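Appendix C reproduces, verbatim, an entry submitted by the partner laboratory led by Prof. M.T., so that reviewers can inspect both the input and the predicted structure.
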Amino acid sequence: MISNTLHTLALSCVAAVIGLSATAMADTSVVVSVRDQQLAVMKDGLRLATFPVSTSKFGLGDQPRSYGTPLGTMQVAAKIGGGAPVGAVFKHRQRTGEILRPNSPGRDPIVTRILWLRGTESQNSRAFSRNIYIHGTAEERKIGRPASFGCIRMRSKDVVRVFDSIPVGTRVEVVKASLKSALREVAATNRADAHAG
């Protein structure tokens, strides 16, 4: 009870600083299905949009240098690249000045937008220090199958839509299950949380 109260208070403080209500932050979420290689943006328990993604070609996990995509509940810790042109290349979360077209031969940088994730559970506690992001990729032809080095990759046009629709603090659930079953579980959790609050 006390930890829930402190968590809510912390979210309210963060929300006040960035100009959002804690309710707005809590009502928006993202669900990523590793099985389906899809990401859904949820608002008030309703699916707003679904996008194809690529998770790690090295499988799942959160060990250092494993290159796995961590499972579980995380949150968006930072949004980087707002206003950058589509295809803008980032290195160490800084724009390089280069802009790439999708599927540029021989290139695999982070492009367009970065949503930096922070793990909230022991199974993903290293996500932030491992620089696990949802980000645009120049290798759009590989979207829809595991192809990353741990991050969740998206097409540039899609990551812009997600970036613009979610605030810092948004909950991100990465699951092994199908998107359909994951969304049912999230909806059930949201209903239980609503009744408890």
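Residues 1-25 have pLDDT under 50 and may be disordered. Additional entries are available on request from the coordinating office.
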